[in-house]
Write a structure and sequence with these properties.
two-stranded antiparallel sheet; 2 strands; mainly alpha
């Protein structure tokens, strides 16, 4: 007879009503889905950071931009 603890009270799963068991099953499914979404969020944030870093490496520097626009550089 497996037990579950909710709000510091222990319940025998076999003694729960069918409706309570269904609600528990849905609660467990929600907890699992939240973990999956959190993992997916971390993966997506990591990918976004990698794309941003790659983009920055491909952008021209201020010096390259100035030279491309034919600006005269002044050195003091």
């Amino acid at each position: 007879m497996p037990n579950i603890t909710i709000d510091n009270r222990e319940y025998d799963l076999d003694s729960l009503s069918q409706e309570a068991k269904q609600q528990l099953e849905m609660l467990v499914a929600c907890e699992n889905r939240l973990r999956e979404l959190q993992r997916d969020t971390l993966i997506t944030q990591t990918a976004r950071n990698a794309y941003a870093a790659q983009l920055k490496s491909l952008l021209p520097t201020p010096l390259e931009t100035a030279l491309a626009q034919g600006e005269t550089l002044k050195f003091s």
